[in-house]
Automatic annotation (TrEMBL):
PANTHER family cross-referenced by the UniProt entry: PROTEIN LEMA
Cellular localization per UniProt: Membrane
Official protein name in the record: LemA protein
Family that this chain belongs to: Belongs to the LemA family.
Keyword Transmembrane helix attached: yes
Membrane-topology descriptor: Single-pass membrane protein
InterPro entries associated with the record: LemA-like_dom_sf (IPR023353), MamQ_LemA (IPR007156)
Keywords: Membrane, Transmembrane, Transmembrane helix
Presence of keyword Hydrolase: no
One GO term describing the cellular component: membrane
Amino acid sequence: MSTSWIVIGVIVLLVLFAFSAYNRLVALSQRVNQAFADIDVQLKQRHDLIPNLVETVKGYASHERGTLEDVIKARNSAMSAQGPAQVSAAENQLSGALGRLIALSEAYPDLKANANFQQLASELSDLENKIAASRRFFNNAVQEYNTGIQQMPAALFAGTFGFTRKDFFDLGTSRAEVETAPSVKF
């Protein structure tokens, strides 16, 4: 009889451990989802700012149509991207196009002196810093989650419960380029 109580006790402890580990993995997964949602909010703010910036530049640099079209095309692509991998790739293209748009201000002194352009460029720079902070938070949450599903003994049943590895918000080949906020000079 005492052996059966020991076996029951061990089973109860294993079930309690499984519940605890499952709940921890769910919490880590939710943290990753929340962190990605935070990035998404910052990116939507940037996407909303871009048309105003393009319209301001358009008045001063109308013959730079290719650059303006590239920014709009990159913005539309970024807005339709889904998931961390697609979003990061689309945002890399958008960051490059925005960099070229901001660089136009150097060629147009009137644009550079325009108060509306200065305000929009300042907001863009601020948003880039917020996006970088949100991206760091997301990648930290992904790292904790991936570690959680790979650590023993949770690794024994994480796959069974549907916990799979998540991707980082990777900057790809242009990592050094995007690590710093675009320089805005007036």
